[in-house]
C-alpha cells in the first residue's frame, strides 16, 4: 500500500472517526486508513462516564459511525493495531507487526491516558480508571447497591462517576486534594454548587484529602488509608486524577511537543504533512492569542474539519471557543469560553445558584470571558456570541432575567 495519495489517521476516538468523515466530505478520494490500538471501531468517550455508565445508552450508540459506514466510504480500519514509530523524513509509519505504511498526509489523534496513582497498593485489583469502553463496563459492574466506592479526584470524571455510583445505590466517598472539587476550573462560587449537589445526594466529600496508600486482601483493594490515619473501607476505588496527552510517537519523531503536540491554528505540527487534533493537540488559538490544549469532546468533534481541510491544502483556522458539558443527577450544565485561575475579576450570576437554575458569567472588567448555564437550556449559543463580540457589558444587565441576553449582543 505505497499508494502516493494515502492518508493515515492514528487514533480510535471521536477525533479519528470524525477526521475520516471530514476527509471524505472535503474531497479526499485516495486510500484512507484509520489505525487504532483498541479492537473497537472509533467511539465517543463522554457516554463512558455518563449515559452508557448509567445504563441509559447502549453499546452501539457510543460509536462515531456504524460498521457499514467505513465500507461505504472506502475507509480501511486497522483495529487492535499500534503504530510503533513515525518517520517524517520517509513519510511512513511502522506498525506493531513490523509493516511499514507510507503516507501523503498523517493525522495524529492519539488522545490521552489517565494519570496513574503512584501510592503503594495502586496495583491492587479493583482500582479502576476510566478511559476505554471496557473500563466503563468494569465500573458499571462495581457500582451496585450498597457497594462502598471511594473516588480519588474531584474533577469531571470523579464527579460523574460518583453520581453514577450513587444512582446505582452505592455508598460513595470523594477524595479531593484541594478545598472544593472543580475549584481550579470554575472558581469558588460555581464549585460550591457542585459540592452541595453531591452532598445533597449523599456523597461524603473529603476536602484536603491526602492519600497514604491503598490496602488490600488477597491482591484486591479493600480500603484507602489517608495521611491523617483515616481508613476508608472500599469495594472498589475509582481514580480520576487527570490525563496525560499521548505524545510518545510525536516526541520520538522529533515533532515539537510541549503539553501535547504543538500545532498552529491550522492544526499543522512542526513536521511537514503531519497534523494533530483532539486531546493531544496543543493548538494555537487565534481568538485567544495563545496555545491551548482542550481535553473535551467538542474539540475532538470540531477540530477534524479544520485538520482535514489543511491536509487537503485548503486553509481553515480553528478558532471555536472551548465548550464542555456535564450531567450529574438532575443537574445539566454547559460551559463555553476560556478563563484561567486568576484570569478573571468576578463571577456574575443570573438566577439562583442555590436552586441550581442559573447562568454564570466570568468577567474581566466589562468583558465576558466565559459562561456556564446550569439547568437553563438553549442559551449557550447566545453566550458564545456575547463572548466573541467582546462587547462591553454591565453586570446589572447580565444579572437581570428581564433583560434578554440576545439584546446585549451588538
How would you characterize the overall build of this protein?
The chain is α/β, with parallel strands linked by helices and 410 residues long. The chain has helices at residues 14-25, 46-49, 51-54, 67-72, 133-142, 156-167, 183-186, 188-200, 248-252, 297-311, 380-389, 395-399, and strands at 7-10, 32-35, 75-78, 83-87, 92-95, 100-102, 105-108, 112-114, 127-128, 148-152, 171-175, 204-206, 211-217, 220-226, 231-233, 236-239, 243-245, 261-263, 274-276, 281-285, 290-292, 323-328, 331-337, 346-352, 357-364, 367-374. The strands form seven sheets. A five-stranded parallel beta sheet has the order 3-2-1-7-19. It is globular, with a radius of gyration of 22 Å. 43% of the residues are buried. The mean pLDDT is 97.
Mean pLDDT: 97
Overall SS class: alpha/beta
Please give the CATH class of the largest domain. Answer: Alpha Beta
Tell me the count of domains: 3
Shape: globular
Strands side by side in the biggest sheet:
3-2-1-7-19
Oligomerization status of the protein chains: single chain
What is the fourth-level CATH superfamily of the largest domain? Answer: FAD/NAD(P)-binding domain
Second CATH tier, the architecture of the largest domain = 3-Layer(bba) Sandwich
Report Rg. Answer: 22 Å
* Range of strand content: 25-35%
Distance between the termini: 54 Å
Strand count: 26
Layout of secondary structure:
Elements: E1 7-10, H1 14-25, E2 32-35, H2 46-49, H3 51-54, H4 67-72, E3 75-78, E4 83-87, E5 92-95, E6 100-102, E7 105-108, E8 112-114, E9 127-128, H5 133-142, E10 148-152, H6 156-167, E11 171-175, H7 183-186, H8 188-200, E12 204-206, E13 211-217, E14 220-226, E15 231-233, E16 236-239, E17 243-245, H9 248-252, E18 261-263, E19 274-276, E20 281-285, E21 290-292, H10 297-311, E22 323-328, E23 331-337, E24 346-352, E25 357-364, E26 367-374, H11 380-389, H12 395-399
Parallel strand pairs: 1-2, 1-7, 2-3, 7-19, 9-16, 10-11, 10-16, 11-12, 18-20
Antiparallel strand pairs: 4-5, 5-6, 8-17, 13-14, 14-15, 20-21, 22-23, 23-26, 24-25, 25-26
Helix pairs in contact: 1-10
Amino acid at each position: 500500500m505505497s499508494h502516493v495519495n494515502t492518508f493515515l489517521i492514528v487514533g480510535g476516538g471521536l477525533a479519528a472517526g470524525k477526521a475520516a468523515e471530514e476527509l471524505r466530505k472535503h474531497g479526499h478520494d485516495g486510500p484512507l486508513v484509520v489505525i487504532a490500538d483498541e479492537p473497537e471501531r472509533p467511539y465517543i468517550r463522554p457516554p463512558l462516564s455518563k449515559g452508557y455508565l448509567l445504563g441509559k445508552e447502549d453499546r452501539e450508540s457510543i460509536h462515531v459511525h456504524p460498521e457499514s459506514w467505513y465500507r461505504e466510504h472506502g475507509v480501511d480500519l486497522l483495529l487492535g493495531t499500534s503504530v510503533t514509530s513515525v518517520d517524517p523524513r520517509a513519510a511512513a509509519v511502522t506498525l506493531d507487526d513490523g509493516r511499514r505504511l507510507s503516507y501523503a498526509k498523517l493525522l495524529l489523534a492519539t488522545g490521552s491516558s489517565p494519570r496513574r496513582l503512584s501510592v503503594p497498593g495502586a496495583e491492587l485489583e479493583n482500582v479502576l480508571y476510566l478511559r476505554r469502553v471496557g473500563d466503563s463496563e468494569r465500573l458499571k459492574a462495581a457500582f451496585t447497591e450498597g457497594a462502598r466506592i471511594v473516588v480519588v479526584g474531584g474533577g469531571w470524571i470523579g464527579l460523574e462517576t460518583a453520581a453514577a455510583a450513587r444512582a446505582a445505590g452505592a455508598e460513595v466517598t470523594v477524595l479531593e486534594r484541594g478545598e472544593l472539587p472543580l475549584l481550579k476550573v470554575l472558581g469558588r462560587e460555581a464549585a460550591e454548587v457542585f459540592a452541595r449537589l453531591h452532598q445533597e445526594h449523599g456523597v461524603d466529600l473529603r476536602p484536603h484529602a491526602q492519600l497514604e496508600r491503598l490496602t488490600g486482601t488477597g491482591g484486591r483493594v479493600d480500603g484507602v488509608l489517608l495521611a491523617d490515619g483515616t481508613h476508608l473501607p472500599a469495594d472498589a476505588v475509582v481514580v480520576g486524577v487527570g490525563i496525560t496527552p499521548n505524545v510518545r510517537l510525536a516526541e520520538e519523531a522529533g515533532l515539537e511537543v510541549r503539553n501535547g503536540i504543538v500545532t498552529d491554528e491550522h492544526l499543522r505540527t512542526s513536521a511537514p504533512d503531519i497534523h494533530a487534533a483532539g486531546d493531544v493537540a496543543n493548538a494555537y488559538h487565534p481568538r485567544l492569542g495563545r496555545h491551548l490544549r482542550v481535553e473535551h469532546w467538542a474539540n475532538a468533534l470540531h477540530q477534524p474539519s479544520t485538520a482535514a481541510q489543511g491536509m487537503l491544502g485548503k486553509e481553515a483556522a480553528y478558532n471555536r471557543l472551548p465548550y464542555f458539558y456535564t450531567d450529574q443527577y438532575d443537574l445539566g450544565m454547559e460551559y463555553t469560553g476560556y478563563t484561567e485561575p486568576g484570569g478573571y475579576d468576578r463571577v456574575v450570576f443570573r438566577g439562583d445558584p442555590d436552586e441550581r437554575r442559573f447562568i454564570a458569567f466570568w468577567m474581566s472588567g466589562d468583558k465576558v470571558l466565559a459562561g456556564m448555564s446550569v439547568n437553563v437550556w438553549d442559551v449557550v449559543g447566545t453566550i458564545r456570541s456575547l463572548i466573541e463580540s467582546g462587547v462591553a457589558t454591565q453586570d446589572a444587565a447580565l444579572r437581570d432575567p428581564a433583560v434578554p441576553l440576545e439584546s446585549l449582543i451588538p
